[in-house]
Amino acid sequence: MNDSVITVTNVVTRLGRNLIHDNISLSIGPGEIYGLLGGSGSGKSTLMKEMVMLLSPQKGEITVLGHQLSTISRVDASLLQRQWGVLFQAGALYSSLTVAENIGISLKEYTDLSVSLIDEIVAMKINMVGLPVQAAVLYPAELSGGMVKRASLARALAMDPQLLFLDEPTSGLDPIGAEAFDELILKLRSLLGLTVIMVTHDLDSIWNVVDRFALLGDHKVIAEGTLAEVKNNPHPIVSDFFGGARARIRSSGTVTK
Questions:
Q1: Contact, 257 vs 210, CB < 8 A?
Q2: Which helix (H) or strand (E) covers residue 203, if one does?
Q3: For position 7, what pLDDT does the model report?
Q4: Which of 198, 235, 241, 220 is nearest to 26 (CA)?
Q5: Helix (H, G, I), strand (E, B) or coil at 76
Q6: How far apart are CA 67 and CA 80, in angstroms?
Q7: What's the pTM?
Q8: 117: helix, coil or strand?
Q9: For residue range 62-98, what is the model confidence (pLDDT) as tens digits?
């Protein structure tokens, strides 16, 4: 894609002696909900961490919003990081802070907004992700798993990012909660014009939410494209991923993507 917001080009990643990625390439377009799929150990979460500059590949290049991450200056890196929000798998909320304080922490650190305006923005984000008003004064230990996800999402959206990174956003949720969270992501993408990068194992999310995805395996990108395109790939990892009992049950419905 010529208008890609993220490109990964010939990336090689090693963690210690372990080869994780071997010359992988992919591209993510503006406004997409793009999935990073693969079995455990395939390197999908590692790749997401490289996109948000928590890790660096040994070779290759990752470009985000026009910035090459291998050569970006410290100042530009700090500015770029404000253009994305990240929801980590376990939420990563500060346990000693309330929900409102967790959501407002970036606004206090990176802006000169008044306390009253930050409070208004925090309240708006809490409402945006479907949390009750009273959740603002609760601590993470007082939240259900679904509320933790939504509070973490509100924090990721606090700075009005262009990009939203989600690491296993529906893990640990019951089917009803997972479906509601998927619907929320679709709503927020439409409302805010977000580009969403989602690491997921959830087959329902793949069917219902993701526009395109890359399937990682054997240190490579095995396939990239829409669900219909990838399912036609003859590679055995594709067959294993989409040919199991759960996938067959799910695919008995109509595939629209």
A1: yes
A2: helix 203-208
A3: 97
A4: 220
A5: helix
A6: 8
A7: 0.89
A8: helix
A9: 999 999 999 999 999 999 999 999 998 776 888 999 9
Q: What's the pLDDT at 211?
A: 94
Confidence of residue 163 (pLDDT cuts 50, 70, 90): very high
DSSP state of 215: E
How many other CB atoms are there within 10 angstroms of residue 220's CB atom? Answer: 19
The one-letter amino acid code at 8 reads V
Q: How far apart are the first and last CA of the chain?
A: 19
* Residue pair 185/199 in contact by the 8 Å Cβ criterion: no
Q: Report whether 167 contacts 92 (CB < 8 A).
A: no
Q: For 189-210, b where at least 16 C-beta lie within 10 A, e where not — what string?
A: beeeebbbbbbbebbebbbbbb
Q: How would you class 151 by CB atoms within 10 Å of its CB: exposed for 0-12, middle for 13-18, buried for 19 or more?
A: buried
Q: Are 126 and 133 in contact (CB under 8 A)?
A: yes
Residue 33: pLDDT above 90? yes
Number of Cβ within a 10 Å radius of residue 179: 17
Count CB-CB contacts under 10 A for residue 181: 22
Cα–Cα distance for residue pair 168/185, rounded to 1 Å: 13
Cα separation of 79 and 87, whole Å? 19
